[in-house]
Design brief:
This protein has 352 residues and is mainly β. It has one helix at residues 307-318; strands at residues 2-10, 16-24, 47-54, 64-73, 79-86, 90-93, 99-101, 110-112, 118-124, 129-138, 145-156, 162-173, 179-183, 190-191, 196-204, 210-218, 222-225, 228-234, 239-248, 252-263, 269-281. The chain folds into 3 domains: 47-173, Sandwich (Immunoglobulin-like), CATH 2.60.40.10; 179-281, Immunoglobulin-like; 292-328, no CATH class. Helices cover 3% and strands 47% of the residues. The strands form 6 sheets. Strands 14-21-20-16-18 form a 5-stranded mixed sheet, with no helix packed on it. It is elongated.
């Protein structure tokens, strides 16, 4: 409202004055309480991929594998007539709930094998989880890296309202080295208790060059020497050799374990483990030679005198040479014959 005020006053000379003022005062009404409508919550299903796995790990170019998707309904109502479109591309549905083609499915790196990219799932109740499995093949031209795979879910709610949800999963593709560990020649039979050579060879069977780390040779129950070496880069068809030496302590089959380290395409350490089998022969048993003495030297054996040796001694005696019989150095070498009695005729040759 407005209030008018009149002011009368005198100046220093006694002259009278009158002024009028208008004052505006805002006036508000009382608080009014009234009922308001409660906003309605949107009730709809919501399908979410909670987990994805493959039966082949790791994936490589050209791998044939089975993709498993765990899909859960996290919405507030049931999802009816669920259909999944691998690779995406279903951006709308018709009145019957059929997916309508959009920009097209992206199946450049992973393609369905044995069926189409459309999977009919059916109804998924609120809070329920279903597993969807698809057979896929990786493109052989795919290079190592992380690839996204788009999926579209087409479904309706209990009020027959249609929905399309797009989701993306990620698959990792590796290019692992394809190497083979073998013998570059026949190692032959191994012998227990003796050093044996393992002629090992690592060959790159892949179509691309690869860089390998350390190669380590181990075996249970044996001593292995010269068993570690750095392999380095191998071209397609290239090889690396290593001659390790082992000394087994027991006979029987022996498993040789070869471990090669390397770094994969995502800079994670990995290793290639291959095994080779060899046969170990028993340790040889050495029988003492009766012709050898305890000191390892040969023992002198008795010599049986022949007719011609006697003739030779006769002529030696004629010329004054030593014509005695050579006796063995030690030992009793009697032959069982009757010894020659002393006093026999000894013919001495001239001297000087």
């Amino acid at each position: 409202g407005v209030i008018k005020a009149t002011v009368a006053y005198l100046d220093s000379k006694g002259t009278a004055y009158t002024d009028t003022f208008s004052l505006s005062i805002p006036v508000t009404s009382g608080v009014n309480y009234y009922a308001t409508s409660t906003p309605k919550t949107t009730s709809k299903p919501q399908l979410v991929i909670t987990k994805n796995t493959t039966d082949v790990d790791p994936l490589q170019p050209g791998s044939i594998f089975e993709l498993s998707l765990n899909v859960k309904n996290l919405g507030t109502t049931d999802a009816k007539s669920v259909t999944m479109v691998l690779g995406g591309g279903a951006n709308s549905v018709n009145d019957l709930g059929t997916p309508q083609p959009g920009a097209g499915a992206d199946l450049t790196n992973f393609a369905p094998l044995g069926s189409s990219n459309i999977v009919v799932v059916g109804d998924v109740a609120q809070g329920a989880e279903v597993t969807i499995k698809l057979k896929l093949v990786g493109n052989v031209t795919t290079v190592p890296g992380a690839y996204t795979l788009k999926t579209s879910f087409v479904y309706s709610d209990t009020a027959a309202k249609n929905f399309v949800d797009d989701q993306v999963i990620t698959l990792l593709v590796y290019q692992l080295p394809q190497v083979e560990v073998s013998f570059y020649r026949d190692p032959g039979m191994m012998t227990a208790g003796m050093p044996n050579v393992l002629p090992l060879q690592v060959t790159n069977l892949g179509k691309k060059s690869t860089v390998l780390g350390n190669m380590t040779v181990t075996a249970d129950g044996v001593d292995v020497t010269n068993n570690t070496a750095l392999v380095g880069a191998l071209d397609p068809g290239g090889y690396f050799t290593l001659d390790s030496e082992i000394m087994p302590f027991a006979e029987g089959p022996l498993e040789i374990k070869v471990t090669i380290t390397y770094t994969d395409d995502f800079n994670q350490p990995r290793e290639v483990v291959q095994t080779l089998n060899v046969e170990v022969m028993p340790e040889p048993v050495f029988t003492p030679d009766p012709m050898m003495g305890e000191d390892g030297m040969p023992i002198d054996q008795p010599v049986t005198e022949t007719f011609w040796s006697k003739v030779g001694r006769f002529f030696k005696g004629l010329f004054g040479l030593d014509s005695g019989v050579n006796e063995p150095a030690g030992g009793d070498f009697s032959t069982g014959e009757k010894p020659v009695e002393p006093g026999g005729v000894i013919i001495s040759g001239p001297k000087g």
